[in-house]
Batch of 2 targets.
Target 1
Amino acid sequence: MSVWIAIALTTVGCYLVKLLGLLVPAETLERPLVRRLAALVPVALLAALTAQQTFSARGELTLDARAAGLAAAAVALFLRAPFLVVVAVAVLGTAGVRALS
């Protein structure tokens, strides 16, 4: 039952955050600093999530096949490969290192 309470509270919280966002005055949203933050915060959060998921296992810093997959994806991105190719290169890089170790 406590899981459903947590889900309900999270749902209400998300709705309230969205409602607060709609109540922000338009002048505030047009400021250059706010526009820049709105563009950069999602990128920073995604980078942090990627780093945490790649280099962490059971609360410890680890370097395994996931790091090799991330490095392979970074090379593919540097070479301006399409998104699906980047994902495929990451998968193949991770699988290759896991197969060899």
Target 2
Amino acid sequence: MAALLLLAATTIVGCRIADTDAVTPVPQLLAFLPWLLVPTSLALLLTLLARWWPGLFWGTAVLAALTWFVAPQGDGGGAPTGTPLAGLRVLTSNVEFGNGTPALVRQLRRWKPDIVFVAECEYTCQARLRRDTDYPYRTAVVAGGSTGSLLLSRFPLRATDGVPGTMGMPGAVADVDGHPVRLQLAHPMPPLPGQVALWRRELGRLRDFAAADTRTPTILAGDFNASQDHAAFRRILAAGHLDDGARLSGAARTASWPAATAAVFGTQIDHVLVSRDFSATGARFLHLADTDHRALVVDITLHQHRP
């Protein structure tokens, strides 16, 4: 049994080291990489009880690699040093086919974010947010089910083409106190068995968006259906010179999904990614009734760009 546990853990850790998401079931298991510490520790105990010394060495190596990846790795590209220009609060939420809209309205009234990214916001969700919130600017993919998505803003918006995908991913450029900021909602398909290629392709489109303009301040937020342990997600960060707002705020491993168990078991697949023109503080994960995702609120500050 110890050998089987170590073989499974070694396969997943090996893919993480090799910077690949490979094929099913690797992408699904990579999302829960920190939890591999449990079976790996069990295997290590079994090798010790059985006095299987090669297995003990093997298990120790796997456990060390896991610990390295799970431990905090710093704050990305470092804090910007330019003059602060504007502070803003960003919220992202997947309301699960619109079911979590009433709870989202309450959180919007409480936290008063300046920019809101809402995934799976179908017709009734969009109508409710238009009626019950006071955001003067918005852009949306108007559709039913999981395809509908919405951007809300207290700053003027100029809609863009967004990113094409199976589910709606609208985009815009916001005028934040006279400074253009690119906004893009992320909601690629999840890496379900048989759909990993589609998941990888849609994350690749988000990577292309991030890489298309690395000089304009950028906020890329939403339900990425990917964690920091997925190579396809890390390539978005690298291509766009982006940092994860939760990581910058010291909450890199706080789970956002599934909401029902996130306090004790889960993974962080909802993110607010920002270009290095921004500093970030105070990430908060909020429980919303009737949706399987926690919402994420991050306070960010736009700084003057320095070459």
